[in-house]
Structures are given as C-alpha cells and as structure tokens.
Amino acid sequence: MLYRLDASAAEIAQCFSARAGDDPWRGGHLAPNTFAPIVTTGREEIAGPRPSGEPSRRIIPRLWGVPPPPSAGDAGRAVLTVRNLESPFWVGNLRNSEFRCLVPATAFMEWGRSDVQTGKRRQCWFGCADQALFAFAGVWKDSEIPSFALLTCEANAALRAEGRDTMPVILPGDPAAQRVWLNGDWARARELVQPYSSSLMLVRDARMGDTQ
C-alpha cells in the first residue's frame, strides 16, 4: 500500500482543527519507512493522566512503520498496519487514547487484479467522494524511532472487486467521529474500525486513468 497527501500542513491543520507548528509538509507521495504528518492529542514523554478538558490537536511528523516486537524475528521489517486489535503488541496503545492518531490522506493505492492483456497487476487508487481530505485511523508508538501504523479492517465491495481482503480504516468526515478516535474510550473508538462505504469511494485505475 502507498498513499498520497496532496495538501499542505496549513490545509491539514485547518481541516482537522490542529496546530501546524513548524511542520514543513507541502504535499506529495507517502511510502513505508518515510515520515508523514499525523494529527495527535497525545503527550509524548509525559506520563500520568490527561488534564481535564479536550486536549489540543497538533501535527507532528512520524515514520510510517513501527519497529517490530522481538518475537517477530525480523528486526528490519517495520510493522505498517494493525490487523489484530487484541494483539499484546498493540492493545495497550489502542486502549489509551493518547496513542491514537489521525493520518491525513487524499488517496491510497492497492494492487488490484492482473490486467487480462499484459498479466501485470494494476495499481488502483482509491479516494473518498464525500471528503477530498480524509483521515485513516492510526496509532503511534515510541521506541528508538517516533513511528505510527495504520489500522486495517475487512475490505469493502470496491476493494474486494480488486481481490483485496483488507483495507485501511477510513474515519468518517464527521468531526464527532474523529473526536471519538482521538479522545474517546476504546469501546466507542473500536466501533469506528469498519469498512468505509464502497458507495462513497472513488476508484481510479492508474494505467487507464479511469475514475468510477
């Protein structure tokens, strides 16, 4: 998976009611093991309970890909997605809202079915018809690298049509839903981990340039 974020830090801040700070992001392509802007209300390096009231949001750069646990056996293979919500590696971060984040995007790419003429797999880009700038549900960890991963869920009809079993979790454009993901208890936030409506998705074949 790859994704694009064709919006500046200032535009991201305005869309998600966050402080841009000194983030230099001007828009572009995101690949695994590269830094990307995320929106968080967490307090890195500060222990203890949150202060009262809704915490402020800010944009910070983090690396897409979390260093794996020792049990993975491959220290060089970063963990890009969260598939098992009950995994001991993730459960503590997911249940503590400080570690949840919004990952802004404008489109994402998944490899689709093979082209019948060439036999090569096609790049399919997906966007949201109802929100040009949207947010993936993300979670961050701090180890030697400030990093994050994207949550995934069962694929919707649009992605299943391209042979995909899973898809990234796209949060609704409703600010209330985004607030739940950033600040709500885990029982409510977990309800947001579901496929995005295929009727609200735009699909583009990179080879053909078609949009559906």
Count every beta strand, where a strand is a DSSP E run of 2 or more residues. Answer: 13
Derived from helix and strand composition plus strand pairing, the structural class reads: alpha+beta
- Which bin fits the share of residues in helices? 10-25%
What is the CATH C level class, in words?
Answer: Alpha Beta
Biggest sheet statistics: 6 strands, antiparallel
Count helical runs.
5
Radius of gyration equals 17 Å
Beginning-to-end CA distance, first to last residue: 20 Å
Overall mean pLDDT: 91
Q: How many domain regions?
A: 1
Q: Per CATH, what is the topology? A: hypothetical protein yedk fold
By CATH, the superfamily comes out as SOS response associated peptidase-like
| H/E topology pattern | EHEEEEHEEEEEHEHHEE
Q: Hey, roughly how much beta strand do the residues contain?
A: 25-35%
Principal-axis shape equals: globular
Quickly give the CATH architecture: Alpha-Beta Complex
* Major β-sheet strand ordering: 2-1-7-8-12-13
Q: Unreliable segments (pLDDT under 50, ≥5 consecutive)?
A: 207-212
Describe this structure in words.
This protein has a single domain, classed as hypothetical protein yedk fold (Alpha-Beta Complex), CATH 3.90.1680. 14% of the residues lie in helices and 34% in strands. It has five helices and 13 strands. It has a six-stranded antiparallel beta sheet, with no helix packed on it. Strands 3-4-10-9-6 form a five-stranded mixed β-barrel. A hairpin with a 6-residue loop joins strand 7 and strand 8. The longest helix has 9 residues. The chain is globular, with a radius of gyration of 17 Å.
